[in-house]
Design brief:
The protein is mostly helical. The chain has eight helices and four strands; from the N terminus they run αββαααββαααα. It has a two-stranded antiparallel sheet with strand order 1-2. A two-stranded parallel sheet has the order 3-4. Helix 1 packs antiparallel against helix 4.
Length: 197
């Protein structure tokens, strides 16, 4: 588990990077939100309840990529995905608004990805250590499962595969991340996310 000093360093890092980046992404973000609004016929800013630090829910921001309302079933999501939305998800630019989540303290640049209710909030025992840190935009589990949608589409029962294979593996990876946290590792995960596709 991270010490109070490590958590403080991590938070200072998150805020500093967000403040530096924000001025450069405002105009591209507005443009992407506008295009998403046109392509989906809905508000380009998509908000979804996710589970955050200490198991508390928060609204996670993304750029809308789907025309329909199915956001949990991977096959339905793929069917409702717009061409622009497919590009957004492939490039991960749909997650650009999460810089705001980081700035206000809901998320971190690096950490376990925030899940919908029914996963992280249901953790028990030692697994709940994952809830001691803010969820991240990227992290070791996110990088390992960067093509998670493709993997799930290959399964006969995607939900069962996610619940019995992917989710337990993510929990193990994220526990290891917390046990061995360092700022240099966070920087490496961020670098890998941006420059190594």
């Amino acid at each position: 588990m991270l010490t109070k000093n490590q958590l403080r360093i991590k938070r200072i890092f998150d805020v500093s990077i967000s403040i530096v980046i924000l001025p450069f992404i405002i105009i591209p973000l507005i443009l992407l939100l506008g295009i998403a609004s046109v392509s989906t016929g809905k508000n380009g800013l998509f908000m979804q309840k996710r589970i955050g630090r200490f198991g508390k829910p928060f609204l996670c921001y993304k750029i809308r990529s789907l025309k329909g309302s199915a956001h949990h079933d991977v096959k339905a999501m793929k069917h409702n995905e717009t061409p622009f939305g497919s590009w957004l998800r492939r490039t991960k630019l749909d997650e650009l608004p999460q810089v705001i989540n980081v700035l206000v303290g809901d998320m971190s640049w690096v950490g376990p990805r925030p899940d919908v209710p029914g996963y992280a909030d249901q953790l028990t025992g030692d697994d709940r250590v994952i809830l001691q840190v803010r969820p991240g935009i990227t992290g070791p589990a996110t990088l390992k499962y960067k093509n998670e949608d493709v993997l799930l589409l290959q399964q006969t029962d995607a939900n069962t595969y996610n619940d019995t294979v992917i989710w337990p593996d993510k929990v193990a990876i994220n526990k290891e991340y917390i046990r061995n946290w360092s700022l240099s590792k966070d920087l490496n995960y961020m670098f890998t996310s941006v420059f190594k596709k």
